[in-house]
Structure formats: C-alpha cells, structure tokens
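ok here's the first one, seq then struct tokens
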Amino acid sequence: MEKTKAEKILQAGLDTGADFSEIFIEENQSSTIALRDKKIETINSGTTYGIGIRLLFGTEVLYGYTSDETEANLLKIINELALAKNNGKKQTKDLISLQNKEIHNIHPIKKYPKDVIPSQKLLLLKRADEAARKTDSKIIQASVRILESVRQIEILNSEGLSAEDKQTRCRFIVSVTAANENERFEGTESPGEQRGYEFFENLNIENYAEQAAQRALLMLSAGYIEGKKMPVILGNGFGGVIFHEACGHPLETESIRRSASPFTGKLGQKIAHEAVTAIDDGNIVNSWGSINIDDEGHLAQKTILIKDGILKSYMSDKVGAIEVNVPRTGSARRESYKFSPVSRMRNTYIDNGKDSIDNMIASIDFGLYSKKMGGGSVDPATGEFNFAVSEGYIIKNGKIDKPVRGATLIGKGHEILPKISMVANDLEITAGTCGASSGWVPVTVGQPTIKVDEILVGGR
C-alpha cells in the first residue's frame, strides 16, 4: 500500500480514540491436485485478496475486513468500528511515520509451484498410487493430493511498522485403504515444508505411499489391548500432537490471559519431569510451521517453553504480552485477513534427551508402544485429551509383541508432563494444521520417542 494512503488510514484509526491501529494486507495463491481411484478428482487453483483493519483500545480488539481496498471503503470500516466502540470522548494519539522493516528470508525457494505445469505434478500422484497398490492385493483404494500455496502479507501499524513477507508451502498427502471380507483400515502420510516445487522433486514419493499402505495392512490384522492404566512409549514425530494439543495450547497467552489454562501463574515453577525440555521455534529453515515474521510483523524467534521441567515462557502476541506481562515471542498468527491475530504455535516439540529406545522398552513389563498417533480432541482449559493410536504394539516382558488396533490415550496434559521419565535422541517434526480462534494455520508437531510412566489406555 502506498505510504501516504496507509498513514491516512492508520491516523483515522487513532482518531477514533484507539491506542493502536493496524492494516493487514494479504494475497494468497493456492492450488490442489488430487487423484482418487486412479482418476483425477480435483484440479483447482485460486487467489484470495483482502485487507484487515484492527484497532486496540487498551487490550480490547475491534476488527473488520474487506476485499475493497479503496481509501473510502477502508475509512468507512474504521468509522463502523468506532461506532461499535462508542467510547464518547476521544483523545487522539500521534501516528509514528512508517519505516520499512528489513526482513531476512530464511526459507529460500528455488522453483515456485506456478512455474510447473500440472501434468508434471500429476505424474507424482500416479507414482504414489502405483506404489501403494502394488504393496498387497488387499489395498483397495489410494487417494493422493498435492497442496501448494504462496502467501504474501504486508503489515503496517501506528507504531511506524511497515513489513512484508512471502510464504511458500507445499504438501503431499497420501491415504491408502486396505480391506478384507469384514473390515477396512486407512494409513496416511502427509509431509510438508515451506519450500517450492523442489520439495516434491526431493521427496521419496514411493516410500511414503508404501508406509501408508503397510500401516493400513498391519492394522487390518491387529488385535486389541485391554484398557487400563499402563506405561506407554510414544513414538517420535507425530506423537508430539499430544503435547501440542494438551500442553501447547494452554501455554499460549490467549489461554493464559483468560485464566483458561492449568499453567496460569506458573512461570518459574516445575511443571514437568526434569527430562522434559519443550520448544516452540519459528525459525527452523524451510519447516512447514516456520515464519520470518508473525502476523503482527514481529520477528520470529526460538522460544524455550519448558527447560528441564521448569516452565520458562508462554507464547505471546501483542495483546497477550500486555495482559500477561510477558515479552512478545513472535507468535501472533491468523489464517487470513478475515481473522484478528492471537498467540499460536509454530514448530512445537519436545527436545532430544539422552535415553535409548531399547532401554525404554526393556523397562516395561506390560504396556503400549504407540508408534504413530492419529486424531483426537482436547479441552484447552483443562488439558484433558483423548487421542487415537493409528499404529500400536503391545509391550510384553520388555519386548515389542503383537500389533493392536483401536487403542486410545486418555488423560490431562499437565498431569502427563511429570510422568515423562525417559526421552530419546531421535527428534522428528511433522507437518499439520491447527485450528483455534484465529482460524487454521500451518504448524509442525514433534518429539523424540518418549516414555510416559502411566496413561489411561482405552482398548476395544
């Protein structure tokens, strides 16, 4: 946006009596190609564009958005927000002149997705389909998708900030279904990175398809585990979804400032076993959940949440930092210009430890090895979770025994943290999406293999 126009809009925001005004501009180009049952199911692409206007009165947020960028329309939105506030006497603050903020892009892109013709991408889908189907005659269906997006944002605010960023993300999703006479099971793999089309060129397409197929086949022949409390080993990578959901959300200032978190007021206190160090990092190069700046224009950073079991930091946005009285961590995020930003996770993981997986398994007489986690639900206010195990095995007499299906893990995040007694050195992070009050955003979850001394396991 032209500087003079932007400053006029921002000053109009301050003239309502607001303490802070902000313009958020976004253009997002996205595309999807999907293959299902050996046929092209979807080929589509589109561009969304819009502008969000945010006014802060202290920490009270008023927000409006539009795809009409005319000056008259933007001023109209501000006037409507002012009417909603209706705060009577207004005291205008002075606008700080806009200054461009230099942003160093740590996510180099070699080949933008739009420069690659769809037929090349279709070949990748066919390769995955063929690899999955040849695994076994019980494979009855394969669904493969390529997702791409190029998101450009510009943020201008009354504190003089003018910043821009460009985020290019690519993701590959393969879901494979195996069936016998009575049942069917599905296995899924879904890697993604903040990278251009070179992500797909460097991806072992066949390997991911075969992994998904083998998991579906394994669960097809698996039995069940008796439901009760027991020690559980959580595999690396997507096993971190439990920490993300049951502990990560309650560590966002969006929860803390509402006193809707079991971790409220516990900075500096021991909340986990000393084996646990947990991090939320926005700066991992080319990682799916990384950003150069957050959606308020604040530089991304590495935030140590828990260090050796001690709570060190929350994840914060501007409003949360003010209300909770903590530093900003570059964690303000939103799905699009249609949402006001709040504190959200980026790349969130339990860090490497020093224990061996063999020793973990050997320490358990009877328990569950959850090699791969599935979906689930959580109440952020209580940390109570319920997650499905998509690939699991019984541990018996210190050894991995038979595969099991249908197991669930049930508990509360703040109660599980002190029971993580062993942490391996095989950290892996995996791509996902996270939904909250500011919409759906790309995140990664992760961890090394960990041992939890006791979790309630649901069986059949």
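and now the second one, same deal
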Amino acid sequence: MPDSRKFLHPEAIKRIARLDLRARHIVEGFLSGMHRSPYFGQSIEFRQHREYTFGDDPRYIDWKVWAKQDRYCVKQFEEDTNLRGTLLVDVSGSMRYGRGAMNKYEYACTIAASLGYLLLRQQDAVGCVSFDERVRMTVPLRTRRNHLESVLQALEVSSPREKTDMYPILREITETFPRRGMMMLISDLLSDREGLFRGLKLLRSRGHDVMVFHVLDDDELDFPFGGPTRFDGLESPDIVRCNPRALRDGYLKAMNDFLEEVRRGCTRNNVDYALLRTSQPLDAALAAYLSNRLGMHHKNRG
C-alpha cells in the first residue's frame, strides 16, 4: 500500500463509506442538496437568451439586453451536474503536533480524503491544494473515482516548512481555480490572521462557498501540562523551558481570544466555521458539522 493510502486505511474508509445510518443520510443528503441550493455558488450555467413571456421570473430578465435592444429577454440556464469542491490542506510544520492516535496533519489529511471520497462517489469534481509557506502541490478538478489517488498523493509532503501569510496562498488559489465552487480550508490557522481574513474575503468575493475546518489538538485547547516541561517550536528553532502551571491561565485566555477572533472573522466574511479536536471520531465530527450546516441553510432559505 503506498504511503498516501494511510489517510484512507481500510478501517477508515469502511467507516466513512458506511458511517452510521443517520450520519450517512446527513452527509449524502447534504452533498446532494448542494446541487440544488443557490447558496452553493453556481450549480447552473448560463446557456442562451429567449424572449420574455408572461409568468417568467423577472429576476432572470437581462437588463443589458433591454437597454441595448428595448426588448425583454430572460437568461436560460442548464444544469451543471458536478459540484466543484477544492480541498485546501495545511501541511506546515505546526500541523505535525499531536500525542493522540493522529496528529493534526494526519487528521486534516483524513478529513480531506474523506470529503474527497464522498464527493467523488457523487460524481462531483474534486481538486486539492497542499500548502505551507507556499503552495506545495495542486491537483486539478476531476470527477473520476480513481482521481482520489492523486488527491492523496498531494497530501504527502516531506520537509514541511512554516506558515507565514495565508493571503498570497489563497490569492494564488483563486487564480488557479477561477470557476465558482466550494473551497474547504483545513488548517490549524496558526498564522497571520489579517492575511487569513483577507484571503477568505477574496475567495468569497469571487463567488466561492467557503468552509473552514479548524483542526487543533487537545493539548493546544486544554493545556494539560503539569510539571517542568520543555516546549520545542515546530516552525522555529525556539525552545522554552518553564513550569506550565504558571502559564496555564494566560495561555487559555490567549487561546480563547484566538478562537473568538477566528470565529468572528469567518462570520464577518460569511464563511462556515467548525472547530475540530483531533480526539473526535472523524465520521461523527463530519456528520455533526454537516447536519448543523444543513439545518442552518434550510432555516436561512425558509
């Protein structure tokens, strides 16, 4: 088995493919619904004009044609059967942290592999970008089932580097994938927040539907350390030796401030946000998130 297949090892793919009955219903219903919901960008493509007739929806009148030709025409569309979903996966050094069954990098890659698997099973188009301080690998949008192998290979990155400003990375992605679709960012977001929010705003301004999966380890969220501890920087050579009990309150406040800043930034830019712990079973986490998102969008449309 190639190394890249570890992100969908047999037990994981069996659970994701089957999920439990309720989770499967939620996930497949959610993905199917994306084809029908105007919230998810362009599920339909412009084809031609025709004369306006009584009963046509006035929202589809092309006013530019009216201004030029003094006649009412409506735009006709055709179904675009493929949703375009692009996985944006952080493979930087900080993602290698973790003391549980999976570190953040492995958890993020498994999220990406699972979403890719589900989308391809629905004959949707899937692309992938892995990045650290720069874009490391880009996989174009394809609908073939065997395309998953290319996605998995893009996630295999050796010698990860630090993350810096996300804005140039997200700007490059908008140029690489100009057609509107769904962008799924999977990262610990430990980078410059101003650049992150500028990048998310740019993706939304180009018509993309954006989902952020914020992956953090329990240690980062709970700071459970007790006695004298040495902390090694994952994206820098810094080493800190300290008594973590003296730092715990200040650290947790800083972490909560960070999480609140990220949530507010995503809300401000109309980006869906989910915080995922690496200790959470992945199928349950995905199902709960998608169920919540589906419920919110039904409420918004209702």
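notes on #2: The first strand starts at residue 44 and ends at 51. The longest helix spans residues 244-268.
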